[in-house]
Amino acid sequence: MIYSKQFTLDQLAPIAVYAKLKTLFKDEITYLFESAGQSEGNYSFICIGARERLQFVDNKTIYTDIHGNKNVKEENPFTFLKEYYKNIDTALYKEATTKLNIGFVDGFIGYIGYDMVKVFEPKLGSSMDHLKDELNIPDLDLILPKFLVVYSHKNNQISLVSMLKEFADKFNTVEESLKGSYQYIDMTKNKGNDKGSFAHSKEQFFKMIDDSKEMIRSGDVFQILMTNRFTRDIEVDPFSFYRILRIKNPSPYMFLMEYENFNIVGSSPEVMVRLTNGKLLLRPIAGTRKRGATNERDKELEIELLHDPKELAEHLMLIDLGRNDVGRVAKTGSVKVENMMHIEKFSHVMHIVTDVVATLDDGKDMFDLFMATFTAGTMTGAPKIRAMELIAEYEGLKRGFYSGSIGYFGFDGNMDSAITIRTAMVKKDKVILQAGAGIVADSQNELEYLEVNNKLGALIHSLEDLD
User: Fold this and answer.
1) What is the dihedral of CA 346, 348, 352, 354, to 10 degrees?
2) Do residues 274 and 41 touch, judged by C-beta distance below 8 A?
3) Which one in 198, 254, 315, 429 has a CA-CA gap of 20 to 30 Å to 324?
4) Contact assessment for residue 21 and residue 149, using Cβ atoms and an 8 Å cutoff
5) Residues known to be catalytic
6) Helical H runs in 407-444?
7) Are 283 and 356 in contact, with CB atoms under 8 Å apart?
8) How far apart are CA 454 and CA 45, in angstroms?
9) Contact call for residues 283 and 355 (beta carbons, < 8 A)
10) Which DSSP letter does residue 122 get?
């Protein structure tokens, strides 16, 4: 049974609604998903609680059922999901999304970490199984929400949705609370003086670049993404951090995910893969310049970026990789490239972007599509498998949340996901950031190191605002 209620709330932003709901449901996992910047996104989604949960921990699939019982499954999480969704009445949820006029009603939603790729590509196990794990979080954590609140930015309508009668019975109480009085919440300052440090020193990172270029010259790979992790040992309030980040770096995918003992805060510019009524979208983003201090300088940098042979070669390579990934699950002849190599600008950087579109083949589902494209070539290099083996060797760390995906798999057959970049993990006593640069044969070490720092800019400056 799908329970729902709708009403208008035109005086408050979703961030205030989220804060109020956090006080009503104090002991629950909560997510806030928003869209901004150069995005067609109309909705903000707030997820409350986990009525069921799927995790991947220590190479084991753990399914928590509606009664709270934890079950260790033999199959990998995506094989489990494929079977689970076969029992879903897709038409019921399509009817509900149409009736309520919202993009998501129910389905598993959460994050898929980068290291899940070894499940989809078992060959990677030998190189990835023994990486140092500094984060100690599940490789995958997806929930079925107990309660969903959807805010429409077009008509200021609030939709309350739940599959649980006990939460449906609270709809009137929630409406009264959201329409009640509000108290402004001051930003919480960071606690601690640590200014942060990189996992790899500048000299080490240069060696990683040099080693990558050597493998490119030898023909092992054409391109590889080398990343560096930045950690500050301080106490950070994730809600305050997100509030600043969403202002400083508005993006198509913004998210605050508050789990029991860690939080994910991000504003990603890049779709991982999207499926809407059988039509799929992949958007390779590769090629970066820092934003100019003036409009004139900004335009100069844009022109420079679009005429940089190294950046263009890298981008074309990733278009081809995206087309190849999509082609594994798309109808023959349906794969097309649109809006080729246009510029999109964000608070601290600009990127070259291209759209790859196609129609999902008959007999394939969203999980086939996700597994065929995960993780994005922009996060690995090409060819992907060999690039990921080298990434494991050179970086030496589990990437965890970074360069994986945030997304949902709707019971209506649609899905959307973002690549987990411009994203931070907040733990009790530290905050962890990560960024990378695509290495090709003629990469210059200093420029690649600078690109990593530029990509970290929005996150670092947002943190510094709370010091």
Assistant:
1) -30
2) no
3) 254
4) yes
5) 351, 378, 402, 422, 438
6) none
7) yes
8) 29
9) yes
10) G
Euclidean distance between CA atoms 458 and 327, whole angstroms: 35
For residue 466, give the amino acid letter: L
Q: What's the one-letter identity of residue 278?
A: G
| Beta strands, E only, 171-320 | 197-198, 223-232, 253-258, 263-268, 271-276, 279-282, 285-290
148 has pLDDT over 90 = yes
CB 223 within 8 A of CB 453: no
Nearest-angstrom CA–CA distance, 275 and 354: 17
What confidence tens digit (pLDDT) does each residue in 53-91 have?
999 999 999 999 999 999 999 999 999 999 999 999 999
The residue with tokens 């919202």 is 102
Type of residue numbered 387: A
Overall pTM surpassing 0.90 (yes/no): yes
204 φ/ψ sector (left φ>0, alpha ψ -120 to 50, else beta): alpha
- Rounded-to-integer distance, Cα 44 and Cα 151, Å: 5
User: Could you read off the pLDDT of 277-310 as tens digits, one per residue?
Assistant: 999 999 988 888 989 999 999 999 999 999 998 8
136 backbone φψ class: left, alpha, beta (φ>0; ψ -120 to 50): left
| Longest CA pairwise span in the chain (Å) | 66
Ramachandran quadrant class, 58 (left: phi over 0; alpha: psi -120 to 50; beta: rest):
left
Tokens of 274: 């999207």
- How far apart are alpha carbons 368 and 79 in whole angstroms? 10
Region 238-244: mean pLDDT is 97
